[in-house]
Design a protein that fits this description.
alpha+beta; OB fold (Dihydrolipoamide Acetyltransferase, E2P); 3 domains; 5-stranded mixed beta barrel; about 25% strand; elongated
Length: about 260
């Protein structure tokens, strides 16, 4: 991992560590993001009685810890493994995963441009870290149009190459909600009523597509970058279908099961 932060971590900060030494009552680690060492007392490994620390950790294993105390004069950093909950652990590991993805992008770009990877990484990170804590946060903003590499101070040609690579590798994930709509009516103006309902559904969002299947059946597909807005659109569609229903008409939506 190329990412390094200056100074000391803060108390209560969640950090990524690598186990270096295991003693009967303590574990020593390298704090990967800060290039410093830390110690975990046996009481901070896991709740309950511990017979053998090696049942919980092993040398070279990466673990997520919480900072308990810092003595900058002595250079001592006390950590805890047991005080990190599953949500904090997963959040930290995802952060590291995304930063490694960003670093991989820079390394591939360095290879393409024929430049030393560390030289290119520093030229980019020095500018980015003036505004962001991590590369991947900046790259996400580039994808959403909220950041511009040239405006951050990166030379124009490199900025263009970098943004092209970012847009290719950091494309927002797509989510799909699919299902089948059934419309049936015995109303005298039934055809117009069905057309009106379908038109209202299409107006809900440009991310909605309808496909005619025959005999009053229509396939609905919603494509979005997040489930929350997609689910809101589904609710609006179901509201339209409810309004379609009366003594002579019936509408239903059956959601397709995801894999």
């Amino acid at each position: 991992m190329l990412y390094k932060r200056k100074g000391f971590p803060e108390v209560d900060e969640i950090i990524l560590c690598k186990v270096t030494k295991i003693f009967p009552n303590s574990v020593f680690v390298d704090i990967l993001e800060y290039g410093k060492s830390g110690m975990i007392h046996i009481s901070e490994i896991s709740p309950g009685r511990i017979r053998n620390l090696r049942d919980f950790v092993s040398v070279d294993r990466q673990i997520v810890c919480k900072v308990l105390r810092i003595d900058q004069e002595k250079g001592h950093i006390d950590l805890s493994l047991r005080r990190v909950n599953s949500h904090q652990r997963n959040e930290k590991l995802d952060e590291i995963k995304q930063e490694l993805k960003a670093e991989s992008l820079v390394q591939n770009l360095a290879k393409k441009l024929g430049k030393p990877k560390m030289e290119l990484y520093r030229s980019i990170s020095d500018k980015v870290f003036a505004e962001y804590s991590h590369l991947y946060l900046c790259f996400r903003d580039v994808v959403s149009g909220e950041a511009n590499m040239e405006k951050l101070g990166i030379e124009k040609k490199l900025a263009q190459e970098l943004e092209e690579a970012i847009l290719d590798k950091f494309k927002p994930p797509k989510v799909y909600i699919k299902g089948e709509i059934k419309l049936r009516t015995y109303s005298s103006d039934g055809v117009e009523k069905i057309k009106s309902a379908l038109l209202e559904i299409e107006k809900v969002s440009p991310k909605i597509d309808l496909f005619y299947l025959g005999a009053g059946r229509f396939k609905l597909v919603i494509e979005d970058s997040d489930y929350k807005p997609a689910e809101k659109n589904i609710d609006k569609v179901q509201g339209i279908l409810e309004q379609f229903n009366d003594k002579l008409s019936a509408a239903s939506f059956e959601r397709e099961k995801s894999d």
